[in-house]
Amino acid sequence: MTNIIPESENIAGASASETVDWLTSVAVNRDRHAFERLYGYFAPRIKSYMMRQGTDEASADDLAQETMVQIWRKAHHYDPQKAAATTWIFRVARNLRIDRLRKYKLHEVEMTAEVEPGDDEGSGHESYEKRPDADKLRALVDTLPQNQMDVVRLAYFEGLSHSEVSLQLSIPIGTVKSRLRLAFGKLRMGMGEKI
Asked: Is the dihedral of CA 174, 175, 180, 185 positive or negative?
C-alpha cells in the first residue's frame, strides 16, 4: 500500500511512540488528556493536508474536526501491528474526505437535474415522480430486506455519507457498502437492467 501521508506530514515534534501511546490511551482508557495531545498535534496537520488536496479552508476545518471525532470514537480499532498511528489517522481523514466528495457529487447531480422539455408544470424531480418507472422503483425499494432498505434510505434519500450511515446504524462501513451493493443489484435486476 502506498503511503497516503505526504512526507512533510510525517511526525516531527512528537515521536512515533508518543502518538501510539496517546492513541492507545484514548482507546483503552478514554484518556482525555491523551486525546487533547492528539488533537493539538494532528488537527492542524489534517487541515493543512486537506487544503493541499484542494479543500477550501472552512471544509478543511470541518474535516479535521470530524476526523478527530472519529479518532475518539474508533481509537479501539487502531492496531499498531498493521499501521503507524499517523498513517491510520490520515487514512481516517482521507476516507472522510472521499465520503464528503461522494455526498457532494450526489447532491450536485440532484440539484442540476434539468427539467424535461415541455414540462412547464413543475421541477424535473416532479416529472420524474410522474413516470411509471418511478412507481416501479418505489415498489422495488419496498421489497428490499429491512437492513438494505435502511442503508439505501439513509445514504440516498437522506444524503448521509457512508461513514454517517455506519455510525447511525452502528455497523461497520464495509457492511454499509455491501448492503448498498446488494440492494442496487436487486433494484437493477428488478428494473430489467443486466448486471
From this structure: positive
- Which residues fall within 8 angstroms of residue 14, CB to CB, at 6 or more apart? 37, 41
Query: Around Cβ 88, how many Cβ atoms within 10 Å?
Result: 21
User: Running DSSP on this structure, what letter comes out for residue 138?
Assistant: H
**For 58-116, how does the pLDDT look when each residue is reduced to its tens digit (9 = 90+)?**
889 999 999 999 999 999 999 988 888 999 999 999 888 888 877 766 544 444 444 44
Question: What nine digits make up the cell of 22?
Answer: 496517546
Q: At what angle do helices 85-112 and 16-29 cross, to 10 degrees?
A: 70
Q: Which residues contact 179 (CB under 8 A, 6 or more apart)?
A: 147, 148, 151
Of residues 155, 148, 157, 133, the one with CA closest to residue 185: 148
